[in-house]
Specification:
- The structure holds 2 protein chains of 2 kinds.
- Chain A has 13 helices and 4 strands.
- In chain A, strand 1 and strand 2 (119-120) form a beta hairpin.
- A two-stranded antiparallel ribbon of chain A has the order 1-2. A two-stranded antiparallel sheet of chain A has the order 3-4.
- Chain A has helices at residues 22-45, 63-88, 96-108, 136-158, 164-182, 193-196, 203-221, 223-233, 235-240, 245-271, 282-292, 304-324, 328-356; strands at residues 115-116, 119-120, 188-189, 273-274.
- Chain B is α/β, with parallel strands linked by helices.
- Chain B has helices spanning 2-18, 35-50, 65-77, 93-103, 131-148, 167-179, 200-213, 225-237, 254-261, 273-288, and strands spanning 23-29, 54-60, 82-85, 107-110, 124-128, 155-161, 188-195, 219-222, 246-248, 268-271, 296-298, 301-304.
- The longest helix of chain B has 18 residues, at 131-148.
- Chain B is elongated and about 60 Å long.
- Classes of the chains: A mainly alpha, B alpha/beta.
- The interface between A and B is large, with 42 and 38 residues.
């Protein structure tokens, strides 16, 4: 039993006790949901969700739908990559949605064009010096806003010893206030062309997937990843074994904040506008993606791949509902049931795995 | 003659107000971060800045019914001359009316119609635009344009609905249904209607989802401009020519007017929100001065098309 001691979760486990990795369960759920939509689609719509049944494309798949399934979750997915790391340390980040709102307003103010259709930009926030800037400046501003928010979160959690729920709840309210105060509630619109290219077309997806791959490797093959899991599994033990826990926690929250800042940049670029209500409930959707993907809120367990599949599940469900033309009133009810169902299933799987030991 | 009367009226108005000390008015707005309500708020602030005889105290109710009632009671306790409320939840206005009436403070509801409209106590009024106008104006213009394009043999439309819990969303969607129920417009059928929560991003994704079904369509109606703009972005990304689709929205935001000027948006409706804000202050001042005021003060909607676009830019 001694090799079970390198367990990385609330429940100790070693590979021999589990029949297959947890991500495979989540992937199975994704396939199951797709099959369910295909069957319902065949019965009620005489159409397929993922396959091309109307000869619109040369391929066998309905490419437009495959694209939108992932586009619509890519931006929140980027936030979820950071939230996953925070949750693995047994923390939580409720501030990401509001950080998106505040960062959107601030970053967009540095991305505006001088002339709109031959007239001066009616939504310009600053004077001429901030107009027609190269795209790198608003991107840097956005990352910096995320950095500041994450840094404050991290300091509050790691050094002031404020529970993550409370610390990030405070940041959630504060950042939303900043978003509204920045332009007194007015939208910030009309970005430069180079800035608008950041979130155009499939760009959000490529950024999301690249970051997912990057952080998958970081979490699995670097000291940073090992320490993150160790802190979430047993903070006391992590401290005893010489990990500088507070410093590491600050780093985790900073990364989560910067990912939220980046998400805000992509969101405003995609929509060509920033509004103070942007990012509302994104934190909850990001947490839902992680949780559906098998990340344990008790810490120490979960993976970036799981979260990506969790995001895909939400994307498939959203597109599937529209595909079936399911009344808008029912969609959230069904989504709520699926989230709870996914976690219940995962819990049951885990208990079975533990019992087999 | 008219001019003299007007001048006389203005001078008495001015004398009437300059004789008084600065009037204190408390304002509770449902949400500060709502785009439309911000325009209304700016209308109030502009009126305040332009008039020395009135001073506003503006509060954000952050979409919280209980908080809004507390704010009103605080206004009453601090002895304001009148209160303006943009209700968070129009079902909760009875308690607000009672609190103001028993304290003898005039109360003006703005933008959102109170549930107790029929039993509004003396010294209270409602300033808004007639919500039924907005959706109807937009839908009817879309119908006319589709006919003009020779699509009266049959046209198919998508409807982007605002937040399902919001009265304006329900009303504007119903208006669209009512218009296509008329003989002249019954060639329009709705393929699907779904909520995009007033949001450009959600509308963009929703429209892309619809496009992936590959159904032919001729028109898209958004309950507000933001959603119409999101749909336009999705259609342009999919390579659809905006000449082939009639797109309508409501609000006439500056982003929407720009989209109209480049030929993307076909119809929108201008809700004079700044006018509502200023009108609510004028009504509150009149009530505080003990003047007779109609229970409902309507600020009219205006249809905006490429033809009269320049009037609004």
């Amino acid at each position: 039993m001694s090799d079970a001691s390198e367990g990385t979760g609330g429940l100790t486990f070693d590979k021999s006790k589990r029949s297959w990795p947890n991500e495979l369960n989540v992937f199975g759920a994704l396939i199951l949901i797709i099959v369910a939509f295909e069957i319902l689609g065949a019965i009620f719509m005489q159409q397929s969700l993922l396959f091309d049944t109307r000869d619109r494309f040369d391929s066998i798949f309905n490419e437009a739908r495959l694209r939108i399934i992932i586009i619509q979750v890519a931006i929140i997915g980027i936030i979820a990559i950071g939230v996953t790391q925070v949750i693995i340390t047994a923390g939580i980040d409720l501030s990401s949605g509001s950080v998106v709102g505040a960062t959107a307003m601030i970053a967009m103010s540095f991305a505006q064009v001088a002339m709109v259709n031959g007239n001066p930009n009616p939504k310009a926030i600053f004077g001429e010096w901030a107009l027609d800037l190269p795209w790198i400046i608003p991107v840097f501003v956005g990352l910096f806003c995320g950095f500041v928010a994450g840094f404050i979160n991290g300091i509050l959690v790691a050094y002031a010893r404020i529970p993550p729920f409370i610390a990030t709840l405070g940041m959630m309210l504060f950042a939303r206030g900043v978003a509204q105060w920045w332009s007194l509630g007015n939208p910030v619109s009309f970005p430069t062309e180079s800035y608008a290219a950041i979130g155009a077309g499939m760009m959000p997806v490529w950024i999301f997937l690249s970051l997912a791959v990057l952080f998958h490797f970081i979490m699995n093959f670097t000291v940073y990843g090992k320490h993150t899991y160790a802190i979430g599994s047993n903070e006391q033990a992590a401290r005893m074994s010489g990990i500088n826990v507070p410093r590491h926690l600050v780093l985790v929250y900073v990364i989560a904040g910067m990912l939220a800042g980046l998400a805000a940049v992509i969101l405003t670029s995609k929509n060509l506008t920033a509004q103070s209500g942007m990012g509302l409930t994104y934190e909850l959707e990001a947490i839902a993606m992680a949780v559906i993907g098998g990340v344990s809120l008790f810490g120490g367990r979960g993976s970036i791949i799981g979260t990506v599949i969790g995001a895909l599940i939400i994307g498939v469900i959203t597109s599937g509902f529209t595909f079936l033309r399911l009344g808008a009133f029912y969609q959230e009810m069904v989504l709520g049931m699926i989230i709870v169902g996914a976690v219940a299933l995962d819990q049951w799987q885990q208990q079975r795995a533990a019992a087999r030991a | 003659m008219k001019k003299i009367l007007l001048a006389a009226g203005l001078s008495t108005l001015m004398m009437g107000t300059t004789a008084m000390a600065e009037m204190q008015i408390g304002v509770s707005v449902a949400r500060f971060d709502d785009n439309g309500l911000t325009v209304m708020r700016n209308g109030m602030t502009a009126f305040d800045d332009a008039n020395d005889d009135v001073s506003l105290q503006m509060e954000d109710a952050t979409d919280d019914v209980a908080k809004q009632l507390d704010q009103i009671n605080n206004f009453i306790a601090s002895g304001v001359d009148a209160i303006i409320v943009n209700a968070v939840d129009t079902n909760a206005t009875e308690a607000m009316s009672n609190a103001a009436a028993s304290a003898g403070v005039p109360l003006v509801y703005v933008n959102r119609q109170p549930i107790n409209m029929d039993t509004l106590p003396d010294g209270q009024a409602f300033v808004a635009s007639n919500e039924i106008e907005s959706g109807t104006l937009a839908a009817f213009q879309m119908c006319r344009q589709l006919r003009a394009e020779g699509k009266s043999g049959g046209a198919r439309a998508y409807v982007l609905v605002g937040q399902l819990s919001n009265q304006a969303a329900v009303q504007r969607t119903k208006d669209f249904h009512d218009v296509i129920g008329m003989d002249m417009c019954n060639f329009i059928t709705i393929i699907d209607e779904q909520t995009a929560n007033w949001s450009r991003d959600e509308a963009n994704d929703l429209m892309t989802n619809w496009l992936s079904s590959g159904d032919e369509f001729d028109a898209v109606f958004g309950n507000n401009d933001e959603m119409a703009l999101g749909a336009i972005q999705a259609m342009k990304a999919a390579g659809i020519s905006m000449d082939d689709v009639v797109v309508g929205g409501v609000d006439a935001t500056s982003d929407a007017l720009l989209a109209m000027s480049v030929g993307d948006l076909d119809v929108t409706v201008f809700q004079d929100l700044a006018g509502q804000g200023a009108g609510s202050i004028q009504t509150a001042m009149a009530l505080a001065n003990g003047e007779e005021v109609d229970k409902t003060v309507f600020i009219p909607f205006k249809l905006v098309t490429p033809d009269n676009l320049s009037d609004f830019q």
